[in-house]
Amino acid sequence: MSDLQWVAACGVDDIEEEDVIRFDHGDRTFAIYRTDKGDWHASDGYCTHERFHLSNGLVMGSVIECPKHNGRFDIVTGAAKRAPVCVDLKKYPVKIEGDTVYIRI
Q1: CATH number of 6-104
Q2: CA-CA distances (angstroms) from residue 45 to 1, 2, 29, 69?
Q3: What SUPFAM superfamilies has UniProt attached to this entry (predicted)?
């Protein structure tokens, strides 16, 4: 039996295309993204370089740029794309039901 659960993170209208918001659940922080194509993704909410909130970053297509040192991650895969980041982001499944965005954590 899995301990993973679907958690309501936000409303679909809470995030514009090419944007990101912060979602806190328990003692964890996540980032919820919407790409320029309208696709939804979720990852850990902190940059893997210096633990800065990605929700303050800039989404460009399917890339998030950390606001502290401008490292970049691929939103779709979580892959580190530009120094100084070199550790990938942990990703989480996303589903939309009605007007609600859920992530599986």
Answers
A1: 2.102.10.10
A2: 26, 23, 5, 16
A3: ISP domain
